TrEMBL record:
This protein's record includes keyword Ribonucleoprotein: no
Organism listed in the record: Trichonephila inaurata madagascariensis
Name of the molecule in the record: Single-strand selective monofunctional uracil DNA glycosylase
Keywords linked to the UniProt accession: DNA damage, DNA repair, DNA-binding, Hydrolase, Nucleus
Record lineage: Eukaryota, Metazoa, Ecdysozoa, Arthropoda, Chelicerata
Sequence ranges assigned to domain Uracil-DNA glycosylase-like in this UniProt record: 51-196
């Protein structure tokens, strides 16, 4: 089982959970039971296989019990506009065993907005502006170009302006087994960095001096 993709292992946990839930009994007051992991299985599994196929450092956990979110399409906080247009979820959505006449399931065709879902996914869209696969493809192209520049210029020292640049340079050197090029880091000068607004030049001068780079920049 451990050789299965993470997405499939997660789906196995959910299926076991659904089987246990199906055995529960409720009082006569509870007539309608909606389990989107059953009737919206196709769209839910599409979501899981697309966006949960690797380990995650962060888990957002919340309830979305309204009738126009996950209940419609099987996607957590599943506002239809974001499910269709941003997450690009595909699949068929069926009906629960017993459907309330005022809470009908329309699946991906639901025209009602899910306010909490719209807020949640709009935040994600603004914060995570590139989907994982798009970002991965972009970084791979940039990494390869960086490698070619390093080889062309016969670079011996790389000064990463900010942590991200330092991390990419280090990754490129390791992936190509380049051991005679040194990577150091200096503070990024962006005004968004509060520390950079307090004597950036002096801080960077010390960083370059401490790393030994400054001597190569000073005229002899």
């Amino acid at each position: 089982m451990d050789f299965l993709p993470i997405s499939e292992l997660l789906l196995q946990i959910e299926r076991h959970q659904c089987a246990l839930l199906a055995n529960l009994t409720f009082s006569e007051k509870i007539r309608y039971i909606y389990n989107p992991l059953e009737y919206a299985r196709e769209t839910h599994e599409f979501y899981v296989r697309t966006y949960c196929n690797s380990p995650k450092k962060i888990l957002f956990l919340g309830m979305n019990p309204g009738p126009f979110g996950m209940a419609q399409n099987g996607v957590p906080f599943g506002d239809s506009a974001y499910v269709n247009n941003w997450l690009k979820i595909k699949g068929n959505v069926f009906k629960p065993h017993l459907e309330h006449p005022k809470r009908q399931i329309q699946g991906l065709n639901c025209s009602r907005s899910e306010v909490s879902g719209s807020r949640f996914w709009s935040f994600m869209e603004e914060t995570c502006d590139l989907k994982a696969q798009e970002k991965k493809a972009l970084i791979e192209i940039c990494d390869e170009a960086l490698y070619q520049v390093i080889m062309l210029l016969q670079v011996k020292f790389i000064v990463g302006i900010g942590k991200f640049a330092e991390e990419r340079a280090t990754h490129v050197l390791r992936s190509h087994n380049i051991q005679d090029t040194i990577v150091v880091n200096i503070m990024h000068p962006s005004p968004a960095n509060p520390a950079a607004n307090k004597g950036w030049k002096e801080i960077v001068h010390k960083q370059l001096y401490d790393s030994g780079i400054l001597q190569y920049m000073t005229l002899q």
